[in-house]
Each structure stands twice: as structure tokens, then as C-alpha cells.
Amino acid sequence: MELSTLQSKVIGYNVPMSKKLHIKIILGSIRDGRFSEKIGPWVEKQVQKNTTCTYEVLDLREYPLPFFDQKETPSSKKKPYTNEVVAQWTEKIKEADAYIFVTPEYDRSIPGVLKNAVDWVYPEWNKKPAAFVGYGTVGGARAIEHLRMIAVELQMATVRQAVNVFAHWTLQDEKGDIQPGALDQFERGAQTMLDQLLWWAQALKTAREEA
Q1: Is 124 in contact with 94 (CB distance < 8 Å)?
Q2: What's the rounded Cα separation, in Å, for the pair 15 and 23?
Q3: 204, 129 contact by CB (below 8 A)
Q4: What is the spatial distance between Cα 95 and Cα 98, in angstroms, rounded to a whole number?
Q5: Nearest-CA neighbor of 52 among 159, 193, 201?
């Protein structure tokens, strides 16, 4: 890996790598022209402001998971990991100490592709925190509420603060690019969200290790 790439992923040089918390940023849409890949780099920049964590972006386009159709559920001892993509996805989820879901709102809920990706995994989500960046007519608020309920079933802890980007299409120019400074209004909320996420990430990691 080139140094510039490494530096873009490893944030903070005064904290030993073994002590850094690791965040997965999950892009929850695969549709053409999706806003998630445009706001994704902005989310990365917010994470980069912290000196105690590393991160990786998980783009669901890169994990073409089949529809969940297994007899055994991921919470059972017989895990449905025979599919190579499912195994890769599960391992990525296992690596994380915390998650940031970037999601649009589809019909008052989350995209089916995101729900399917969540459904393939169970113990790897357990006892870890999640935060949310939503976008849409009402800032993805209803999608985020559904994700919160799903997270409870997965034994996750969700943080109070979320980033809600209302009417995201108004923030883009005629080419579909985000206009300069259009997301500045959300930076304070994003930092509060990350502070809460990392607090819970450290607390739960300590608890998992002690258990």
C-alpha cells in the first residue's frame, strides 16, 4: 500500500495501532447516481479529524451478496458462510469496533440491499455501537429509526446523535456534485455523533475484552 493511501486510512500517529478503534463506514445504496458515494468522502473527512481511530469504507457495490435464503440463521451455530462474498463481508464486519451507516430513505425505510447485508451477519455485530448518516426528503430520519430497531435485535448500541441531510438534491449543482460548503452546516453534528460513537466503541471494546 502506498504511503498516501495508508495515511488516508490511518488517522492519528500518536496512538499505537493496537490501541486504535476501527470504524467501518457502510454505504447503504447501490443505485446509479447515488448520493452515498458523494457524501461518503465528507464522512471520511469527519472521521479523519479524530486521532484515535482507523476506518475503512465498505461499499455494498463491492459485496454483491445473494438474497438471504438459508435454512440456518447467522445466529445459529451452523452459519451460512459457504458463499465467498458472504464470508468476506462477515469478516469485514467482524474487524470493526464501530459502524457508521450512510443510508437513503426508500419508502419510509432502508434500502433492501442494506437490509439484506445486515441480515447475513449476527454475532459480528453484537455489542458494538452504530451511528447514522441519512439523507432524503426528511433527512433519512425514518430509515434511521428503522435501522435503530434492527440494531437492537442485533445487540448493538446506537448513539443518539445522527446526521440528517434534508433534501440532498438541493445541495448539488447541475452536474450532481455537492456544492462547495453545502455540508458545512452538518459538521458540528457529525463531530458530536463521532464523539458519542467512539466513547461507546471504547467502552464496549473494553467490556468485550474483559468478558
Answers
A1: yes
A2: 15
A3: yes
A4: 9
A5: 201
What is the distance between the alpha carbons of residues 187 and 179, in angstroms, rounded to a whole number?
Answer: 15
pLDDT digit string (tens) for 75-124?
A: 886 766 789 999 999 999 999 999 999 999 999 999 999 999 999 999 99
Q: Which tens digit of pLDDT belongs to each residue from 35-67?
A: 899 999 999 999 999 989 999 999 999 999 999
- Considering its fold, how many domains does the chain have in total? 1
Quote the pTM value: 0.89
Q: For the range 149-155, what are the long-range contacts, defined as Cβ-Cβ under 8 Å and sequence gap of 24 or more?
A: 150/110, 150/115, 150/118, 151/125, 154/118, 154/122, 154/125, 154/126, 155/125, 155/126, 155/127
Residues in the chain: 211
The CATH number covering residue 175 comes to 3.40.50.360
Range of the domain at 139: 3-210
**Residues whose CB falls within 8 Å of the CB of residue 109, separated by 6 or more in sequence, listed in order:** 142, 143, 146
Q: Which residue has the cell 463491492?
A: 62
